[in-house]
Amino acid sequence: MLLSIKNISKRYKNGIDALNDVSLDVEKGEFISIIGPSGSGKSTLLRSINKMIDVTSGSIYFENHDITNMKKKEIKNIRREMGMIFQNYNLVERLTAIENVLHGQLGYKSTFSSIFGIYTKKEKKEAFNLLEKVNMTKYAYQKCSELSGGQKQRIGIARAIMQNPKLLLCDEPIASLDPKSSENIMDYLKKIVTEMKITCIINLHQVDIAKKYSTRIIALNKGKKVFDGKVENLTDKIIEDVYKNEENE
Ligand SMILES: Nc1ncnc2c1ncn2[C@@H]1O[C@H](COP(=O)(O)OP(=O)(O)OP(=O)(O)O)[C@@H](O)[C@H]1O
């Protein structure tokens, strides 16, 4: 088991219950989409997994280690194992595409090497290989501020994979993209994680995309898990129920 979440709840300081007794087990190699209306707790769930926030109760196990109450130093080690892809890309805009991909290695470097951007030949080769996988080699030396959204997200994928993660967490990776670029990004993502056998959990607004690419879908509503199963079991009726109260949110 790669990840095991047992009965987690999250109450923010303002009293909002963002997660309510959520449990799930993730096996290696799964491609899981998390769907649900705005405010249902999707981002909170991902942020709990990579320890950006602490849960209020319950436990999280990563590779059978209890990571629920980890200290800061240990969290750094865990984060190396978990790549992140963001809606707003989180690239360093003034740096080139290849420099951003190399940044994926920062978690493994000494402070000295990271400050001076010192990378080995092997790391540079690996970064170029990844640029090739997302078909961005010809933009290697272009500043990220000059790239389109879809191109930026391709760099975001390469950077996350550069980190050599066991788990890839994607928080609305296509929410800022048009439908064509969205499919393009999902194609690259799916191809790379399948090829490299990386487990993937992805927050998505688009149910059709979730159905097309996932091996399993989890639906949240008001912080509760209301569906967890194979794509073929996610009926239109269930989808309707999951999103029923969205207009009231
Ligand atoms: N840092 C925070 N402090 C207080 N409340 C928060 C915080 N982050 C999220 N919330 C609240 O927790 C609930 C769940 O939010 P979350 O962002 O996890 O939902 P989501 O499903 O990812 O939504 P969206 O699809 O709109 O991104 C919402 O009611 C939100 O307002």
From TrEMBL:
Database matches in InterPro entries: AAA+_ATPase (IPR003593), ABC_transporter-like_ATP-bd (IPR003439), ABC_transporter-like_CS (IPR017871), ABC_transpr_PhnC (IPR012693), MetN_ABC_transporter-like (IPR050086), P-loop_NTPase (IPR027417)
Keywords: ATP-binding, Cell membrane, Membrane, Nucleotide-binding, Translocase, Transport
Keyword Nucleotide-binding: yes
Pfam family, one: ABC_tran
Keyword Hydrolase in annotation: no
Domain ABC transporter: start-end pairs: 3-247
PROSITE patterns named among the record's database cross-references: ABC_TRANSPORTER_1, ABC_TRANSPORTER_2
SMART domains associated with the record: AAA
GO molecular function, one term: ATP binding
GO cellular component, one term: membrane
Top-rank taxon: Bacteria
NCBIfam families documented for this protein: ABC_phnC (TIGR02315)
Protein name from the UniProt record: Phosphonate ABC transporter ATP-binding protein
Lineage, opening ranks: Bacteria, Fusobacteriati, Fusobacteriota, Fusobacteriia, Fusobacteriales
Gene expressing this chain: phnC
